[in-house]
Amino acid sequence: MASEWCIGIIGGSGLYTIDGIEDAQWIAIDTPWGDPSDEILCGRVGEVKVRFLPRHGRGHPITPTELNSRANIDALKRAGCTDILAISAVGSLREELEPGRFAVVEQFIDRTVHRPSTFYTSGFVTHVSMADPVCPRLSEMAAKAVSKAKGKVAVGATYLAMEGPQFSTRAESRMYRAWGADVIGMTAMPEAKLAREAELPYALIGMVTDYDCWREGDSVDVAQVIEQMQINGALARSAVANFIAALPKKREPSPIDTALDDAVITAPDEHDPAVMARLDAVAGRLFG
Q: What angle do CA 16, 166, 189 make, to 5 degrees?
Protein backbone atom coordinates (compact mmCIF):
# COMPACT_ATOMS: atom_id res chain seq x y z
CA MET A 1 0.00 0.00 0.00
CA ALA A 2 1.04 3.61 -0.62
CA SER A 3 3.32 5.06 2.04
CA GLU A 4 2.94 8.62 0.71
CA TRP A 5 -0.17 10.70 1.20
CA CYS A 6 -2.11 11.95 -1.78
CA ILE A 7 -5.11 13.80 -0.39
CA GLY A 8 -8.24 14.26 -2.45
CA ILE A 9 -10.21 17.31 -1.34
CA ILE A 10 -13.84 17.42 -2.46
CA GLY A 11 -14.94 21.01 -2.05
CA GLY A 12 -18.60 21.56 -1.36
CA SER A 13 -20.69 24.72 -1.37
CA GLY A 14 -18.47 27.47 0.02
CA LEU A 15 -15.11 25.81 -0.67
CA TYR A 16 -14.00 26.42 -4.23
CA THR A 17 -10.24 26.89 -3.80
CA ILE A 18 -7.33 25.47 -1.81
CA ASP A 19 -4.85 27.85 -0.19
CA GLY A 20 -1.13 27.33 -0.64
CA ILE A 21 -1.26 24.81 -3.46
CA GLU A 22 1.93 24.83 -5.56
CA ASP A 23 2.72 23.52 -9.06
CA ALA A 24 -1.03 23.62 -9.62
CA GLN A 25 -2.64 22.61 -12.87
CA TRP A 26 -6.18 21.67 -13.79
CA ILE A 27 -6.21 18.22 -15.41
CA ALA A 28 -9.14 16.60 -17.21
CA ILE A 29 -9.55 12.93 -16.31
CA ASP A 30 -11.65 10.54 -18.36
CA THR A 31 -13.59 7.81 -16.54
CA PRO A 32 -15.75 4.88 -17.68
CA TRP A 33 -18.63 6.48 -15.76
CA GLY A 34 -18.74 9.74 -17.70
CA ASP A 35 -17.43 13.18 -16.84
CA PRO A 36 -16.60 14.20 -13.28
CA SER A 37 -17.92 17.51 -12.00
CA ASP A 38 -14.85 19.36 -13.25
CA GLU A 39 -11.18 19.00 -14.01
CA ILE A 40 -9.06 18.13 -11.00
CA LEU A 41 -6.64 20.69 -9.62
CA CYS A 42 -3.43 18.75 -9.10
CA GLY A 43 -0.51 20.11 -7.10
CA ARG A 44 1.10 19.93 -3.72
CA VAL A 45 1.00 21.70 -0.38
CA GLY A 46 4.47 21.43 1.08
CA GLU A 47 5.49 17.83 0.48
CA VAL A 48 1.93 16.49 0.31
CA LYS A 49 0.29 15.75 -3.02
CA VAL A 50 -3.16 17.30 -3.27
CA ARG A 51 -6.01 16.71 -5.71
CA PHE A 52 -8.89 19.20 -5.49
CA LEU A 53 -12.30 18.62 -7.08
CA PRO A 54 -15.11 21.20 -6.77
CA ARG A 55 -18.09 18.93 -6.18
CA HIS A 56 -20.59 21.05 -8.09
CA GLY A 57 -18.06 22.28 -10.66
CA ARG A 58 -16.53 25.74 -10.83
CA GLY A 59 -19.37 28.23 -10.66
CA HIS A 60 -21.71 25.62 -9.10
CA PRO A 61 -23.58 24.55 -12.28
CA ILE A 62 -24.49 20.99 -11.18
CA THR A 63 -27.43 20.11 -8.93
CA PRO A 64 -27.00 17.58 -6.09
CA THR A 65 -29.10 14.93 -7.84
CA GLU A 66 -27.18 15.31 -11.11
CA LEU A 67 -23.73 14.97 -9.55
CA ASN A 68 -21.84 12.10 -11.16
CA SER A 69 -20.38 10.74 -7.95
CA ARG A 70 -19.10 7.58 -9.61
CA ALA A 71 -17.06 9.64 -12.06
CA ASN A 72 -15.85 11.94 -9.25
CA ILE A 73 -14.55 9.11 -7.07
CA ASP A 74 -13.11 7.18 -10.02
CA ALA A 75 -11.29 10.31 -11.25
CA LEU A 76 -9.78 10.96 -7.82
CA LYS A 77 -8.60 7.35 -7.64
CA ARG A 78 -7.05 7.68 -11.12
CA ALA A 79 -5.37 10.89 -9.99
CA GLY A 80 -3.50 8.88 -7.35
CA CYS A 81 -5.49 9.74 -4.24
CA THR A 82 -4.91 7.61 -1.15
CA ASP A 83 -7.50 9.36 1.04
CA ILE A 84 -10.40 11.79 0.68
CA LEU A 85 -11.38 14.75 2.84
CA ALA A 86 -14.81 16.02 1.82
CA ILE A 87 -16.28 19.40 2.76
CA SER A 88 -20.02 20.00 2.59
CA ALA A 89 -22.53 22.67 3.57
CA VAL A 90 -25.18 21.25 5.91
CA GLY A 91 -28.29 22.30 7.76
CA SER A 92 -28.57 21.71 11.49
CA LEU A 93 -31.12 19.44 13.13
CA ARG A 94 -29.86 20.21 16.64
CA GLU A 95 -30.05 23.40 18.69
CA GLU A 96 -26.43 23.04 19.79
CA LEU A 97 -25.17 22.84 16.20
CA GLU A 98 -25.60 26.50 15.38
CA PRO A 99 -24.79 28.15 12.04
CA GLY A 100 -21.05 28.62 11.77
CA ARG A 101 -20.21 25.45 13.68
CA PHE A 102 -18.49 22.59 11.88
CA ALA A 103 -19.52 18.98 12.39
CA VAL A 104 -17.28 16.00 11.66
CA VAL A 105 -19.59 13.26 10.42
CA GLU A 106 -19.48 9.72 11.78
CA GLN A 107 -22.66 8.11 10.38
CA PHE A 108 -25.09 8.52 7.49
CA ILE A 109 -28.77 7.94 6.78
CA ASP A 110 -29.24 7.72 3.02
CA ARG A 111 -32.57 9.03 1.70
CA THR A 112 -31.41 9.61 -1.88
CA VAL A 113 -33.34 7.70 -4.53
CA HIS A 114 -32.32 8.89 -8.02
CA ARG A 115 -28.54 8.35 -8.02
CA PRO A 116 -26.38 5.40 -9.07
CA SER A 117 -24.87 4.28 -5.78
CA THR A 118 -22.41 1.52 -6.68
CA PHE A 119 -19.60 0.68 -9.07
CA TYR A 120 -20.40 -3.04 -8.86
CA THR A 121 -23.11 -4.46 -11.10
CA SER A 122 -24.09 -7.94 -12.28
CA GLY A 123 -20.97 -9.75 -13.43
CA PHE A 124 -18.90 -8.57 -10.47
CA VAL A 125 -21.20 -8.44 -7.46
CA THR A 126 -19.61 -6.87 -4.39
CA HIS A 127 -20.95 -6.00 -0.94
CA VAL A 128 -18.68 -3.68 1.08
CA SER A 129 -19.28 -3.04 4.76
CA MET A 130 -20.65 0.41 5.57
CA ALA A 131 -21.11 -0.17 9.29
CA ASP A 132 -18.44 2.42 10.01
CA PRO A 133 -18.62 4.59 6.89
CA VAL A 134 -15.87 7.10 7.61
CA CYS A 135 -12.19 6.78 8.39
CA PRO A 136 -11.60 7.40 12.12
CA ARG A 137 -7.99 8.45 11.51
CA LEU A 138 -8.94 11.15 9.01
CA SER A 139 -11.95 12.26 11.05
CA GLU A 140 -9.85 12.81 14.16
CA MET A 141 -7.31 14.82 12.17
CA ALA A 142 -10.12 16.84 10.58
CA ALA A 143 -11.59 17.80 13.96
CA LYS A 144 -8.19 18.91 15.22
CA ALA A 145 -7.63 20.94 12.06
CA VAL A 146 -10.89 22.85 12.55
CA SER A 147 -10.06 23.52 16.20
CA LYS A 148 -6.62 24.82 15.25
CA ALA A 149 -8.30 27.18 12.80
CA LYS A 150 -10.24 28.55 15.80
CA GLY A 151 -13.47 27.02 14.58
CA LYS A 152 -16.17 25.47 16.74
CA VAL A 153 -16.38 21.77 15.95
CA ALA A 154 -18.65 18.90 16.96
CA VAL A 155 -17.70 15.28 16.38
CA GLY A 156 -19.69 12.08 15.90
CA ALA A 157 -22.48 13.66 13.84
CA THR A 158 -25.06 11.67 11.89
CA TYR A 159 -25.71 13.10 8.42
CA LEU A 160 -29.11 12.71 6.75
CA ALA A 161 -28.64 12.71 2.96
CA MET A 162 -31.80 13.90 1.20
CA GLU A 163 -32.48 14.08 -2.52
CA GLY A 164 -33.24 17.76 -3.05
CA PRO A 165 -32.95 20.20 -4.69
CA GLN A 166 -35.84 21.44 -2.56
CA PHE A 167 -35.27 21.87 1.16
CA SER A 168 -37.20 19.75 3.67
CA THR A 169 -40.79 20.13 4.75
CA ARG A 170 -41.26 20.76 8.46
CA ALA A 171 -42.71 17.26 8.88
CA GLU A 172 -39.65 15.72 7.22
CA SER A 173 -37.25 17.82 9.27
CA ARG A 174 -38.92 16.77 12.52
CA MET A 175 -38.93 13.14 11.43
CA TYR A 176 -35.19 13.24 10.68
CA ARG A 177 -34.57 14.64 14.17
CA ALA A 178 -36.59 11.77 15.65
CA TRP A 179 -34.45 9.33 13.67
CA GLY A 180 -31.33 10.64 15.40
CA ALA A 181 -29.88 12.70 12.54
CA ASP A 182 -27.85 15.76 13.53
CA VAL A 183 -27.19 17.48 10.21
CA ILE A 184 -28.81 17.36 6.78
CA GLY A 185 -27.37 17.73 3.30
CA MET A 186 -27.82 16.67 -0.31
CA THR A 187 -24.40 15.47 -1.48
CA ALA A 188 -22.58 13.06 0.83
CA MET A 189 -24.46 10.04 -0.47
CA PRO A 190 -23.65 8.05 -2.49
CA GLU A 191 -20.24 9.77 -2.38
CA ALA A 192 -19.20 8.10 0.89
CA LYS A 193 -20.41 4.67 -0.29
CA LEU A 194 -18.47 4.96 -3.53
CA ALA A 195 -15.31 6.05 -1.72
CA ARG A 196 -15.50 2.88 0.37
CA GLU A 197 -16.06 0.77 -2.76
CA ALA A 198 -12.93 2.37 -4.23
CA GLU A 199 -10.95 1.56 -1.05
CA LEU A 200 -10.44 5.26 -0.31
CA PRO A 201 -10.57 6.29 3.36
CA TYR A 202 -13.09 9.13 3.60
CA ALA A 203 -13.87 11.83 6.14
CA LEU A 204 -16.49 14.59 5.94
CA ILE A 205 -16.55 18.01 7.53
CA GLY A 206 -20.03 19.51 7.51
CA MET A 207 -20.20 23.31 7.59
CA VAL A 208 -23.46 24.36 9.26
CA THR A 209 -25.16 27.15 7.32
CA ASP A 210 -28.62 27.22 8.90
CA TYR A 211 -31.10 25.55 11.20
CA ASP A 212 -33.34 23.30 9.15
CA CYS A 213 -37.05 24.11 9.30
CA TRP A 214 -37.85 21.97 12.37
CA ARG A 215 -37.67 25.15 14.45
CA GLU A 216 -40.96 27.01 14.75
CA GLY A 217 -40.92 30.11 12.59
CA ASP A 218 -37.65 29.18 10.85
CA SER A 219 -37.30 28.27 7.21
CA VAL A 220 -34.31 27.88 4.92
CA ASP A 221 -33.60 30.31 2.09
CA VAL A 222 -30.70 30.51 -0.32
CA ALA A 223 -29.66 34.05 0.68
CA GLN A 224 -29.19 32.97 4.30
CA VAL A 225 -27.25 29.89 3.24
CA ILE A 226 -24.94 31.82 0.89
CA GLU A 227 -24.16 34.46 3.52
CA GLN A 228 -23.12 31.82 6.04
CA MET A 229 -21.24 29.83 3.36
CA GLN A 230 -19.01 32.81 2.70
CA ILE A 231 -18.13 33.02 6.38
CA ASN A 232 -17.60 29.26 6.62
CA GLY A 233 -15.46 29.15 3.46
CA ALA A 234 -12.54 31.10 4.92
CA LEU A 235 -12.48 28.89 8.00
CA ALA A 236 -12.72 25.76 5.86
CA ARG A 237 -9.69 26.79 3.80
CA SER A 238 -7.71 27.32 6.98
CA ALA A 239 -8.84 23.95 8.35
CA VAL A 240 -7.81 22.16 5.14
CA ALA A 241 -4.37 23.79 5.33
CA ASN A 242 -4.02 22.67 8.96
CA PHE A 243 -5.16 19.16 8.08
CA ILE A 244 -2.54 18.80 5.36
CA ALA A 245 0.23 20.33 7.48
CA ALA A 246 -0.44 17.90 10.34
CA LEU A 247 -0.30 14.70 8.27
CA PRO A 248 2.38 12.28 9.48
CA LYS A 249 5.43 12.09 7.24
CA LYS A 250 4.65 8.48 6.39
CA ARG A 251 1.18 7.16 5.63
CA GLU A 252 0.55 3.99 7.61
CA PRO A 253 -1.82 1.48 5.97
CA SER A 254 -5.54 1.74 6.71
CA PRO A 255 -7.92 -1.24 6.91
CA ILE A 256 -10.01 0.60 4.32
CA ASP A 257 -7.16 0.18 1.81
CA THR A 258 -8.26 -3.46 1.50
CA ALA A 259 -12.03 -3.08 1.94
CA LEU A 260 -12.70 -5.27 -1.11
CA ASP A 261 -10.75 -8.28 0.12
CA ASP A 262 -13.81 -9.99 1.61
CA ALA A 263 -16.48 -8.16 -0.39
CA VAL A 264 -16.58 -9.80 -3.83
CA ILE A 265 -19.18 -12.57 -4.03
CA THR A 266 -19.23 -13.44 -7.76
CA ALA A 267 -17.25 -16.58 -8.55
CA PRO A 268 -14.13 -15.92 -10.67
CA ASP A 269 -15.42 -17.94 -13.62
CA GLU A 270 -18.54 -15.73 -13.70
CA HIS A 271 -16.68 -12.40 -13.80
CA ASP A 272 -17.86 -10.28 -16.72
CA PRO A 273 -14.83 -8.86 -18.59
CA ALA A 274 -16.78 -5.78 -19.71
CA VAL A 275 -17.76 -4.98 -16.13
CA MET A 276 -14.25 -5.58 -14.86
CA ALA A 277 -12.82 -3.27 -17.53
CA ARG A 278 -14.78 -0.37 -16.02
CA LEU A 279 -13.33 -1.19 -12.61
CA ASP A 280 -9.67 -0.82 -13.58
CA ALA A 281 -9.18 2.16 -11.25
CA VAL A 282 -11.47 1.46 -8.30
CA ALA A 283 -10.79 -2.29 -8.05
CA GLY A 284 -7.73 -2.83 -10.22
CA ARG A 285 -5.76 -3.98 -7.19
CA LEU A 286 -7.77 -7.19 -7.20
CA PHE A 287 -6.98 -7.98 -10.81
CA GLY A 288 -3.20 -8.05 -10.47
A: 60
